[in-house]
Amino acid sequence: MAATARIGVDIGGTFTDLVLVADDGRRLAKKVASTPDHPEAAVLSGVSALLDAAELKPGDITAVLHGTTVGSNAILQKRGGRIGLLTTRGFRDVLEIGRLRTPDMFDLTWDKPVPLVPRHLRFEVTERIAADGQVVTALAEQELEALCHEFAQARLDTLALCFLNSYCNPEHELRAEAIIRAAVPDLPVTTSVSILPEQREYERTSTTAVNAYVLPVMRDYLIALQEGLRKGGVTAPLFISNSNGGLAPVHVAQKKPVMFISSGRAAGVAGAGHVGRLSDIANLVAFDMGGTTASASLIKDGELTRTTEYEFRDGISTPSRFIKAGGYLMRVPTVDVAEIGNGAGSIAHVDDGGLIHVGPVSAGASPGPACYGAGGGRPTLTDANLVLGYLPDRLAGGSMALSPELAAAAIEEHVAKPAGLTVIQAALGMRAIANSNMSRAIRAVTVERGQDPRDFVLFAFGGAGPNHSCDLARSVGIRKVVLPPEPGVFTASGMLEAAVEYFFIRSFACEPGAIDLAGLRETARSLSAQADEELRQEGFDAAAIHFDFELDMRFAGQDSELQVPVDPFADDLSVEDLTARFLAMYEDTFGYVSLDGVESVNLRMRAFWPLPGTGERTSENPGGTAPEPVSRRAVHFEADAAPVLTPVYDRHAVTAPVEGPAIFESADTTFTIPPDAMAEPDPYGNLVVTFRD
User: Which of these, 616, 624, 683, lies nearest to 658 by C-alpha position?
Assistant: First the structure.
């Protein structure tokens, strides 16, 4: 019987990573240069190369699991669709007003983000639903029919539809959607009740607008990818990695792309959690550094840190529990990730005051860093690492040659001379500045969450993450670093551990001290029945589906909630137990608790099931003598010290402890440990780095 396999794919700003896992135990990885203008091209060429290497046919693939930055790049580069917004009369400026606050009250130079929908494309219609769901003013259908002509004249790519209080009575939104689809059938409509049926007018409007904005870009990309796979003979289902670390069928991503803005990045965190559980490491900081960005996320007591709110903004993007109003808000299930615009391709420059900056602009895959010799003349972090000896003169398994001469020339022209430094000093400065920038992401998910980073282990992956991991760990007081066997393609590998999941939400508002347990159970049954019906229609086996629930709870009068895990059908469930769990979570998050009453807001449900044939890691038996170096290379570790002639090892030949300094090379990444460190393999193929001082 012929072998079958699954493929995980992650598109980055510089490289596209692919991992193939066959049911006969083989595991192959591939890195190919990303193709920003047509991102699907890199995926298709990579899949073809993996199939050839594995000696498999396209029909042998059982699933393609994919993470993409298409959605986030559309927001970052302002390349989304031309969208309109239809809302209740009097609420045209909800996006403009936002939360009436700033992310930093002392920053007088801060400018509010420009709304994704310009004011002249925000339309109002007469209708009104009260907060209790009662109809106050009927939908003016003739008025709406006249507006449909304006939609057509405006040449909109898509329309966001969000009415006041529609979460508790969707009647007007659904009727308006039907009228618009009949009048303008080619205009895609995103309704707030299909994306976020919960209270908060701004949050619901913003989430709906983001969905509409990225929908045309994401839809066109996924259609092109599907068609390319089919033409290549791959008929297996395509699943997209969502922002929560799970997977969803491709048609869900086409309709609800706002759920996939952090696609791929969250899969790496989920993979880190999986490795942590196998290795019995409960507390991890998952650090991912690619060519364009670096991100960090917290895994505490073996559980991924998740939230329901995220703001995409310039500088550092984080869940908006603490810092609000700095960007485009999305209220969707997401892994709690802090991301910053620093990666291996980040361009360095010197400002008018003589200070060196690294990022957030990236050289990307084209033209790429200066050392690629592809026309890029600006110095990047990759160029600095090459000049300093942290990188070899070939990458991606030897398929990409690097030029130290071009790297040094770019650094000298654009950084060293303007700053009055030598090339080596400038390169060391670039590396130190990038490390300082990236440490902000680690602090954002530890110190700013009330957690001491010294209580955690740094789990580093991504093409560039391991090469900066030791410096970053020491900068925040972390004493141990774990590096997986294939860190450069780890995000793609992490998708192979994920489960398919769907999300459902229902308003469940109960006043303090009056949480209705019978009503909670009834709402949970209703959500389960809704999920069963929807998933059966899509052909999924209901017997394989699992459910878990969370109750949004808060102190009376507060504006934000915490998600408390709950089993609505447990015999011992009580209001006192729910309240106690909420208070414990609140104190752990914020460091104190209030004496106010506790109320509920929403009930959330996740329906999930694993795909067959996961890429489970197996235990190995490390041991033996230290391997012989394959070569040696001079590395500059400190500004005022001579370079150190450092042994270079084949990453996969290391079966015994190796004292630093040392360089480890593999097809997917290269990384260096400093002189005061030691790397030791663990039973699962990870390298565990510890510091001696």
Answer: 624
